[in-house]
Design brief:
The protein is mainly α and about 60 residues long. It is built from 3 helices and no strands. Helix 2 runs antiparallel to helix 3.
């Protein structure tokens, strides 16, 4: 997700995206263990996106 896309999201959309990305990350970990990962960079990208969403959630909606 790009920064502009993330800034347009509402609180509920951000929470839904975080849940979805956490499930994806969980599945990536299993794929990594079983040597089935097609794109290893997706793991880091997913972690960074979760961090961006959490940062926006904390800053934008707690202010």
């Amino acid at each position: 997700m790009k920064k502009q896309e993330i800034k347009k999201l509402t609180k509920s959309e951000i929470l839904n995206n975080i849940d979805k990305l956490k499930k994806d990350l969980f599945n990536f970990r299993f794929q990594k263990i079983n040597s089935q990962v097609t794109n290893p960079s997706k793991i880091g990208e997913t972690r960074k996106t979760i961090a961006r969403l959490k940062t926006l959630l904390k800053g934008k909606f707690n202010a």
